[in-house]
Amino acid sequence: MFKHEKRVALIVLLYLMVWLTGCSPLILPTTYQVPNIKEKGDAQVDIAVSVSQMDNLHVAYSPIKHLVLATSVNYGIDRAQNSHNTKLSMFGGGYYHMINNNFMFSVYGRYGFGASTAKTYADPDHSPDLMHVTTIKYTDLQIQPQVLWSDKRTEVYSGLRFSLINTKKFDTNDHNRNSPGTMYILEPFLGCRGGFSNLKADFQMGIYGHKSTHIYSHPYELLVYGRESNDSMLNMSIGIAYMFNLKKKHFGIED
After folding, report:
1. Which CATH number belongs to the domain containing residue 26 in this structure?
2. Domain containing 101: what range?
3. Residue 97: which residues within 8 A CB-CB, separation 6 or more?
């Protein structure tokens, strides 16, 4: 009975991830790393795809009580036209505290390095001679407090992510574009997970607003889509979260 349910759940999750990967991209940031780590030895691996076509891998581990080490690798590409790509690697850690058996507070800090390349055409016929190429290298500093409620099969969480993005290198042959400079991004978010005790589907939704010291307000807008906007935007993603404990050597899927 449970073996059949596991196979069906995994097939549905993989189908949804492939389906989202093929969607038309939107201007969205990376997914949110919110591990359900409660004690020493706990670890969590998250794989998620956002509707912006950003593929995200998050890994977190608690070597001692209340301390988490966290890292993530994020890669995005326009699969339809191959007109842009974005890479971002983050490293950091955090503090977690169990308020009771089901409710946890945590705060994370991360620092990362990113690079993006965008190609746009100045004419509707896509003439190679009129193609604009823009590249940027930047750093990303993040602070993210959050709360999480969980039982055996369900988790609900919410938090706020603040990002400070600083441009390190900017090159373009488009004279209408300027360096984005320093960007401040604020993202309230919420999410939920459901499934087995240590393997769950993960759905996230966040809204981010941003402010730039220059004309362009966000590197994703400048490099990936070549447009500027001061409006808040919706960030949605779906993925899989796998939890295990290295000390207790609990690795299998548990009901």
Report:
1. 2.40.160.20
2. 2-245
3. 66, 104, 105, 106
Query: pLDDT (tens digit, 9 = 90+) per residue, 62-119?
Result: 999 999 999 999 887 765 555 677 888 999 999 999 999 999 999 999 999 988 887 7
Q: Go through the chain and tell me how many residues it has.
A: 255
Encode the chain in three state secondary structure: CHHHHHHHHHHHHHHHHHHHHCCCCCCCCCCCCCCCCCCCCEEEEEEEEECCCEEEEEEEEEEECCEEEEEEEEEEECCCCCCEEEEEEEEEEEEEEECCCCEEEEEEEEEEEEEEEEEEECCCCCCHHHEEEEEEEEEEEEEEEEEEEECCCEEEEEEEEEEEEEEEEEEECCCCCCCCCEEEEEEEEEEEEEECCCEEEEEEEEEEEEEECCCCCCHHHHHHHCCCCCCCEEEEEEEEEEEEECCCCECCCCC
Residue 135 lies in a domain: yes
User: What pTM does this model have?
Assistant: 0.77
Q: Which two tokens stand for residue 128?
A: 């190679």
